[in-house]
């Protein structure tokens, strides 16, 4: 065991506040970032739940400058010809994704987001949570499926009245779970129903997206590059996983919610850095006599400075070790409340890197006290 770790354990009362500060800071950063990612995963649900096993091979074609799946504008169905017939690419299919005005059975309105797709077994766009029974039920005109979490919000649990979308009566034939919405509830239906509900808002010779499947991920990226180079003036193309990332990035970086949560994580970092610096600074000053003895015995000053930096490193390691099980436990609590905290390895690795850097900076600042220690101080 290193000398720095031994002194840290022996003087643990001096460092306990710093360890707890690092624990709090790492926990706050990980949870805030995980919550942010979990929150904005919702924005790409139509992409992520459409044949998720083919996310690296499905090609999405939409309007120019659509950074997120909910911001696509109508494009001519004639664009099918730009995608059809290409070697290694399946026949494209239509996907209607538009906002609609949902009238609750008991009165009042909500904004909803219509997702109209083909319902065949080999279709690319239907959500993977739609069972064969739900797909069969959705084949009837003016039938819809919503997520269980939106039933109360849309007042669909009321026995009175009937819901409408854009003024047209619809019938709920089932619910799914796990597709919670961020703003407007997702409403799943067939392409035919979506077109009927949109009415004049979507011209009959237009759609929102075209989807096709490439034989390989490499072929998908080739086709996307070719489409972008040839038709960038009136449409754009994405591989599904890139479109998913673009949708999340848009909401993460261009909305106030992402800025607010990121700011809270930054505050946790600052608080942790200040308390850690103060703890190391106080501990260094309290150890001035011991350090002066070491200097008098001929121990180089750089060795003492190195020990202080090692102590800051171990404070970071112990603090992060305590933070991890707390984060996992709090993620479980969040899930019980319906919130998703995405603690993927990138989040944990980033938190570890930032926390270690924070403790290293705090240790470097605390070195100023070591430079002022002289062996002569023992005689005073």
From TrEMBL:
Transmembrane annotation, as ranges: 15-40, 257-280, 313-333, 345-367
GO cellular component, one term: plasma membrane
UniProt cross-references to Pfam families, sorted A to Z: FtsX
Record domain ABC3 transporter permease C-terminal: where: 264-375
Presence of the UniProt keyword Membrane in the record: yes
Domain of life: Bacteria
Membrane topology: Multi-pass membrane protein
Keywords annotated in UniProt: Cell membrane, Membrane, Transmembrane, Transmembrane helix, Transport
Main location: membrane
Signal peptide range in chain numbering: none
Claim: Transmembrane helix is one of the keywords in the record: yes
UniProt-annotated location(s): Cell membrane
Matching PANTHER family: ABC TRANSPORTER, MEMBRANE PROTEIN, HEMIN TRANSPORT SYSTEM PERMEASE PROTEIN HRTB-RELATED
Protein's name according to its UniProt entry: FtsX-like permease family protein
High-level lineage: Bacteria, Pseudomonadati, Planctomycetota, Planctomycetia, Gemmatales
């Amino acid at each position: 065991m290193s000398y720095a770790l031994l002194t840290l354990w022996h003087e643990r009362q001096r460092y306990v506040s710093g360890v707890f500060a690092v624990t709090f800071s790492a926990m706050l950063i990980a949870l805030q970032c995980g919550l942010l990612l979990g929150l904005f995963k919702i924005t790409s649900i139509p992409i992520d739940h459409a044949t998720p096993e083919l996310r690296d091979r499905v090609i999405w074609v939409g309007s120019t400058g659509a950074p997120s799946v909910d911001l696509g504008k109508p494009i001519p169905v004639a664009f099918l010809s730009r995608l059809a017939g290409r070697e290694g690419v399946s026949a494209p299919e239509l996907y209607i994704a538009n906002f609609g005005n949902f009238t609750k059975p008991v009165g009042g309105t909500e904004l909803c987001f219509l997702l109209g797709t083909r319902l065949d077994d080999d279709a690319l766009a239907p959500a993977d949570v739609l069972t064969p029974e739900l797909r069969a039920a959705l084949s009837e005109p003016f039938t819809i499926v919503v997520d269980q979490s939106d039933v109360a919000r849309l007042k669909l649990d009321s026995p009175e009245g009937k819901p409408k979308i854009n003024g047209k009566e619809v019938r709920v034939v089932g619910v799914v779970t796990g597709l919670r919405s961020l703003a407007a509830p997702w409403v799943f239906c067939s392409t035919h129903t979506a077109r009927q509900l949109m009415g004049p808002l979507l011209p009959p010779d237009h759609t929102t997206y075209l989807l096709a499947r490439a034989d390989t991920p490499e072929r998908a990226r080739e086709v996307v590059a070719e489409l972008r180079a040839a038709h960038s003036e009136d449409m754009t193309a994405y591989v599904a996983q890139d479109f998913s990332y673009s949708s999340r990035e848009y909401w993460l970086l261009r909305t106030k919610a992402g800025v607010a949560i990121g700011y809270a994580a930054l505050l946790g970092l600052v608080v942790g850095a200040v308390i850690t610096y103060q703890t190391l600074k106080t501990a260094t000053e309290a150890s001035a006599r011991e350090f002066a003895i070491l200097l008098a015995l001929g121990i180089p000053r750089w060795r003492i400075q190195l020990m202080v930096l090692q102590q800051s490193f171990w404070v970071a390691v112990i603090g992060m070790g305590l933070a991890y099980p707390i984060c996992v436990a709090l993620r479980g609590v969040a899930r019980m409340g319906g919130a998703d905290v995405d603690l993927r390895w990138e989040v944990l690795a980033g938190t570890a890197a930032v926390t270690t850097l924070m403790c290293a900076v705090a240790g470097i600042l605390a070195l100023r006290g070591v430079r002022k220690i002289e062996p002569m101080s023992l005689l005073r």
